[in-house]
Model the fold of this input.
Amino acid sequence: RHLAMQQWHEAKERAEQANRAKSEFLSRMSHELRTPMNAVLGFSQLLEADPALGEEQQDNVREILRGGRHLLELINEILDLSRLEAGKIELSLEPVAMASVLTECVMLLRPVADERRIRLHPSCPEAHVVLADRTRLKQVLINLMSNAIKYNRPEGEVWLETRLDTAGETIRVSVADTGPGIDPSRLDELFEPFNRLGQDDGAITEGTGIGLSIALRL
Done:
């Protein structure tokens, strides 16, 4: 038994070392990739502003910008995920009014929702205040809400609601939508990084497939 326990502890330590090495590698690579990516985006924006470009050339530059922004978003989210897995994310806890945070999230996502003709229905009493890191709480809510918009049907709806639990100590935040949903047998895959279950029907939806993993860990 002693030998088995010793082997288990050694295997656990090796796995933790490998995980730390992976997180450190991802963090370093993300930093290295972000610098040239910012240069690509910066010069693409200069090109976009050039009045000498023809319509086709402007379309090509816009395509570079779209691809570059998507790649930068992916790099940033990988960096966030590696920090979370390594336990390097520091939280600054303070009283946060949920109504204020939800309003900010709705304002940020309203243009995307309007483009897809999706109606947002926020519902949050002013009295709902939580102890949280405001920036990270907002990051979680934006991830959940943007998924509800992206994987919805055209002219669909999204409901955002906060509700106090029976003990009066915890607030539950719910995000619901009129999208097609996910097969119950695949719910275990929902928070796996890069596993985009909503792509099974062949539809192309923007995103990195990391947002829910970050939300869960936060």
